[in-house]
Automatic annotation (TrEMBL):
Gene Ontology molecular function terms on file: ATP binding; dihydrofolate synthase activity; tetrahydrofolylpolyglutamate synthase activity
Name listed for the protein in its UniProt record: Dihydrofolate synthase/folylpolyglutamate synthase
InterPro entries with a match to the protein in the record: Folylpolyglutamate_synth (IPR001645), Folylpolyglutamate_synth_CS (IPR018109), Mur-like_cat_sf (IPR036565), Mur_ligase_cen (IPR013221)
NCBIfam families tied to this protein: folC (TIGR01499)
Biological classification of the source: Bacteria, Pseudomonadati, Pseudomonadota, Betaproteobacteria, Burkholderiales
Organism of provenance: Paraburkholderia ultramafica
Amino acid sequence: MPTFPTLDAWLTYLQAAQPVGVDTDLRRIAQVKQALGFSLDCPVITVSGTNGKGSTCAILETILLHAGYRVGCYMSPHLRVFNERARLNGIDAADVELLEQFEAVERARASLTEPVRLTRFEFATLAIMRLFAARGLDAVLLGAGMGGRFDAANIIDTDCAIVTSVNIDHADSLGDTREKIGSEKAAIFRAGKPAICGDPAPPQSVVDHAQAIGADLWLVGRHFRYAAQPGNERQQWSYLGHRRGALRWRP
């Protein structure tokens, strides 16, 4: 089993070893996750969308931290260093923490009867999820890398899913219309769980998928809204429509 003394060496190895192209199948990463044997035993919020994923995760992370919760936040890409992708209580994960998890993922991958190949993103996603699982967190935020249906983050059955916006991007992989892309992003929704869409003109495919699986859909402008306050940077939120129960939050 290969092992490396630095995070940069691991990332270089993974980039060279990863399969070519995007594999539209979560079975490989699910096999390795099962071999790792971890679970996220806390509420999970998964965020997808063409734009706004990072801002949404950052806002949610700040709110939860100020409320006193222990929070793990996974987002990509990073701005300066890879460690920014894994934040624990608002602090980037240390190299030594990530090295331990990278080695664990490689052991699990190699232990399979028929070892599978993972993309660098899939490998890193498993490593960071396992790090979060080991920390006994109160909440985990997962930002999808691309799309949603076959994104590595979608191996977790989320407690709340957010689609921030839907625009044309990654058309070769996700489709060349907002309806097709919306369908891919809405695949992070789960039956009976809150599903939030922040696009003011959501593709019908997002609404249809939520209804088809029985997700609790919230649409901006219909079920909630927000407005900037004149003369300052504050925003005011309001909730519309019928009363709904809050997401159960385990302290």
